[in-house]
Design brief:
Number of strands of chain A: 13
Largest sheet of chain A: 5 strands, mixed
Number of domains of chain A: 2
Helix content of chain A: 25-40%
Mean pLDDT of chain A: 94
Oligomer: homodimer
Strand content of chain A: 15-25%
Structural class of chain A: alpha/beta
Chain lengths: ~325, ~325
């Protein structure tokens, strides 16, 4: 019998990575092509499909491909499109699933990165067996993938789960967000958010910090983490404020969704106790009594280097098991 | 052929109302018993079941009962229980569905009032045919029933959908909530919330108001509405502030759930434009660009006098059509 596999594809602004993945999450083959070199989506897809076809041939076709899962910025699972993704070379609305039809009759599923991360966590990671949980991705922005009763929350137009764009407080004296509004959670809780917080605390403080020599553009989340580990008070305070904002909002998320667990994934989540401790403290403080101590806040169990492709491939297994 | 009906039961602190309802929402029979007269749940259920049995006999048993739906404060749809409902005579955890077993083999479903209202809206009201929508009930507190992909959002423990207990801002300088925390949405947006807002504005203002003669305990939402209709500036401002808080939070709800529509039900929602206009304004102001102008904010189409029993009966039809 041939081994069942799923093809996972992560379309990023710089590179597109693909993998041939079995049901247990083992990578049988992987590769990449440079997204940014392909100004035309059709040419990109022809090159990508050729690469995948060759990879399958190298496996002597001893596998049975069950479907293709794709994670992409602004990927819409209902329409099968990528819509106005500013980081990709192709503008407007790209009918991705339709364009795949000339290469394959397999099921092709596209969604955004945070949704793929959530399904990856459910199929291969720490959320195995869970029915109601949420994955928060803490990269440049804040993404969220929400699973309700074992299924990805999609919403009416495929855009549900934008917890990064819920707001911190009423009124307009808030941070500007890339989305055009002010005060979104991701302006505080994300790698770019903690940079902003760090700069504000540094400006108010007279404490020493080696990062007083680093300008805003050069500052990274990793630098703030390393400084915090060495005892930098400003860096630790920046993590504390970031966790307070996240925990405060996660209490709302629990009141709305009643999840079993919330996973933090990627970027800031790698700062371990510096982000988990203040977040847990604020979450417990703000939770309703009957939830206190009962909602798990956990690190993702998916290797963040492989997560995008694994999450994309997991869409295939999840779809198969839900139909 | 016998007409298919569902029995809807609304258990309230003072009275319990029941109705025999057909698939179109017509009431074939209705009645009530005084909840507060029954200190023991077993005696209460015996009396209730006897009344319903007699009502069915009066219909000459020309109906086929498809199930029993119950709306109750703190009703838990997963466990079939009523848990620590402070307004009911029976304390602790009441295994309601199990207790019904001695009277009937029919399916018995129990949930809280806001969830029943949402299912009622879907089965008989303005949400017919909708798959993703939210009903906000604006009574003494703020309840919410959330429908995702045609199914009630329940969560891991049956407690999802507590939008009334999401919070207005970080920090502790906020209104005390009956839930023990500070700053929950329902401390601002509910009949009791607008009373608090009205009193604060009145205290800061020197404007005339006939309601300066009314004490806090005697003040009702209806009085504030009537004053607003007569041009009372304080009353109108109180509605404006209430709508601003609601619209601000509903923008978060849209970002999280991507619903087609949000319905306002009962209590404050009956104040029509005084609550809808400021809520819509704040909602549109805070929505992400791609949602602006695209999410409907609507009054419930269910008669609020009959809504509790209709919503309870709708649980039966919804369950039947989802299995």
């Amino acid at each position: 019998m041939k081994k069942e596999v799923a093809i996972g594809i992560d379309i990023g602004g710089t590179n597109t990575i693909y993998g041939i993945i079995d049901r247990e999450g083992n990578t049988l083959s992987e590769g990449m092509i440079p997204t940014k070199d392909y100004g035309e989506i059709e040419v990109f897809l022809a090159a990508l499909n050729e690469k995948v076809r060759l990879a399958l041939r190298k496996l002597n076709n001893k596998v049975s491909v069950e479907g293709i899962g794709i994670g992409a910025p602004m990927g819409n699972i209902i329409k099968g499109t990528i819509e106005n993704a500013v980081n990709l070379p192709w503008q407007g609305i790209i009918p991705l699933v339709d364009l795949f039809r000339q290469y394959t009759n397999l099921q092709v599923i596209v969604t955004n990165d945070a949704n793929a991360a959530a399904v990856g966590e459910m199929v291969y990671g720490g959320a195995k067996g869970m029915k109601n949980f949420i994955v928060i991705t803490l990269g440049t922005g804040l993404g969220s993938g929400i699973v309700v009763d074992g299924k990805l929350l999609i919403g009416e137009n495929g855009m549900a789960g934008e917890i990064g764009h819920t707001m911190i407080r009423p009124g307009a004296s808030n941070r500007e967000c890339a989305c055009g509004r002010k005060g979104c959670l991701e302006t505080y809780v994300s790698v770019s958010g903690i940079k902003r917080t760090f700069f504000k605390i540094l400006a108010d403080s007279i404490a020493d910090s080696e990062l007083r020599n680093v300008n805003f553009n050069n500052l990274t989340g990793r630098m703030i983490y390393n400084a915090a580990k060495k005892g930098d008070v400003i860096a630790k305070t920046a993590f504390d404020h970031t966790g307070e904002m996240l925990g405060f909002k996660l209490a709302d998320v629990v009141a709305s969704f009643n999840p079993e667990a919330i996973f933090l994934f990627g970027g800031l989540s790698l700062a371990e106790e510096f982000i988990f401790e203040p977040t847990k403290k604020a979450l417990e403080e703000h939770l309703m009594d009957h939830y206190k101590g009962k909602v798990s806040l956990l690190p993702s169990k998916i290797d963040s280097q492989k997560a995008a492709v694994l999450g994309a491939s997991a869409l295939v297994w999840n779809q198969k098991e839900n139909t």
